[in-house]
Amino acid sequence: MGERTIPTLHEWLGGTDRLEQLTTLFYRKVLQDDLLEPVFRHMSPEHARHVAHFIGEVFGGPKQYTETDGGSHARMVAHHLGKHLDEAKRRRWMSLLLESADEIGLPDDPEFQSALLGYLEWGSRIAVLNSTTVSNPIQPDAPMPIWGWGETGGPYTGD
Ligand code: HEM
């Protein structure tokens, strides 16, 4: 068995265009949803693209959120402060996002789905926790989170 290059989650799902497609569809659903529309009705026109860039960077893609969009982990967290999210809203957010991932045909292999769900669970629960406070727990120079394949490894091994 030779050396092999492990693809990033960003590569595996098809890159930034796919993530932008995902978040565009997702926020369209959000704005049609009774529970989430009031939470997101004032979001900026760049919101979907910024979230796609954030996730792409966490998934090992280009540094678009921090370098092109001028964001940071602390800035992302800041958007959730004082928003008073709760478990019902988080669950709706999760289900609409996963539904969007299926509808645009993101990879459905068990390993990718495990990594995607693990990240979304982690990130969405942190968003809810941060929404109950108004002081940002993240230092301005804190690094971006990084997410990989986790314990399952990946379908990329091919053997
Ligand atoms: C992995 C999970 C999550 C990630 C990566 C994420 C990422 C982001 C990012 C990058 C922004 C800033 C967008 C911009 O620059 O315009 C943002 C804003 C926001 N997020 Fe999240 N988020 C997550 C989970 C959630 C959840 C679960 C909720 C609610 C149920 C939520 C509600 C919001 C709201 C209300 C804003 C601000 C909208 C506004 O500007 O009016 N987020 N999020």
Automatic annotation (TrEMBL):
<dbReference type="InterPro" id="IPR012292">
    <property type="entry name" value="Globin/Proto"/>
</dbReference>
<dbReference type="Pfam" id="PF01152">
    <property type="entry name" value="Bac_globin"/>
</dbReference>
<protein>
    <submittedName>
        <fullName>Group II truncated hemoglobin</fullName>
    </submittedName>
</protein>
<dbReference type="InterPro" id="IPR001486">
    <property type="entry name" value="Hemoglobin_trunc"/>
</dbReference>
<keyword id="KW-0479">Metal-binding</keyword>
<keyword id="KW-0349">Heme</keyword>
<keyword id="KW-0408">Iron</keyword>
<dbReference type="InterPro" id="IPR009050">
    <property type="entry name" value="Globin-like_sf"/>
</dbReference>
<keyword id="KW-0813">Transport</keyword>
